[in-house]
Amino acid sequence: MSELHNAPARSHHRSKAILAIAAGTALLIGGTGTYALWSTSETLTAGPIETGDLDLALGTGVWSLDGLVTAPATVADPAAVRIVPGDVLTLTQPLDVTLVGDTIAADLSVVVNEIVPPALASYITVDFASADLGAATGPNAFRITPADAGTIATTVTLTFSQTTPDRVATNTTVDLTAIAFQLNQAAS
User: Fold this and answer.
1) Taking Cα atoms as reference points, which of 184, 185, 23 lies closest to residue 111?
2) What is the mean pLDDT of the chain?
3) pLDDT at res. 169
4) For the whole model, what pTM was predicted?
């Protein structure tokens, strides 16, 4: 009889051991542990990259006025100028352009939408040019690359047509503060 009495105790210890092993296996499979299966990884050795830059700063501009009966003269204060038909007012403006990037291109332009009142648009024209950049790519715009960056000489010219009739455009304001230079990264 003593043999029969000991058998259930062994079976009970075996059940506890099996349950412990099953619980440990479940923790390894679904928990934080892992099986010892092979794996590997490699860190890329390319090193860091840097972003480029796009910036625009104005140098010191110089204004000049050329009239029908006067020689071109430097203008100290353009706000004091009173233009008349036949006058050409020119701003010589150096632009300090930063353009850094392996694939970057940008459009450099001058915005003059608000400078001339609509009633005068056919009598006063505004042109943007640069001897440093070659041909314009659009109205008052140039496409540039990092090779063009640095100090770029530009001119903005306001021409008051000498064919302006009668008293058209007398005592009218042309807002020079509305001239804005822009540098935008090209998208196409």
Assistant:
1) 184
2) 87
3) 87
4) 0.75
